[in-house]
Specification:
There is one protein chain. By secondary structure, the chain is α+β, with helices and mostly antiparallel strands. The chain contains four helices and five strands; from the N terminus they run E-E-E-E-H-H-E-H-H.
């Protein structure tokens, strides 16, 4: 017996030390971040950051799919940007739209492509990566 194929996308995104994993299924437009509906995610600035790709894409695209995002690591803003990347890449893969890709990249390229910057490691002789202990000769 052949099982009917059901379209499911699994996409991941990273920002600094935060990672996000998204599972997308056909549905009615529900988006959940760590099992919380996107409309009540706190803090508000993180919610607005996560909502950006959904606003750019429009209602007709959003109402076709359900997105479940799980985030871990990093701070709340890093997690928000990782989740935002997952949602944007999900919408691009689901719709296969070149127009949507140009809309996202013109608005903010980090929605599609990750930001490779990381913290520079600390070196000896000082409190951080570059700062050194001060010297006094007199």
């Amino acid at each position: 017996m052949i099982m009917p194929s059901r379209k499911v996308l699994v996409i991941s995104g990273k920002r600094k030390t935060a990672t996000a994993r998204g599972v997308t299924r056909p549905g009615g437009g529900k988006v959940r971040i760590n099992r919380v509906p996107i409309e009540i995610v706190e803090p508000e600035i993180a919610r607005e950051k996560i909502m950006e790709p959904l606003m750019q894409a429009g209602e007709e695209v959003r109402n076709q799919i359900d997105i479940e995002v799980t985030t871990s690591g990093g701070g709340y803003m890093g997690q928000a940007e990782a989740a935002r990347m997952v949602i944007a890449n999900t919408l691009l893969k689901w719709t296969k739209s070149a127009h949507l890709r140009t809309v996202f990249s013109e608005y903010d390229r980090t929605m599609i492509v990750g930001d490779a910057r990381r913290k520079e490691p600390k070196k000896f002789g000082g409190p951080g990566a570059r700062a050194k202990g001060q010297k006094s000769y007199r």
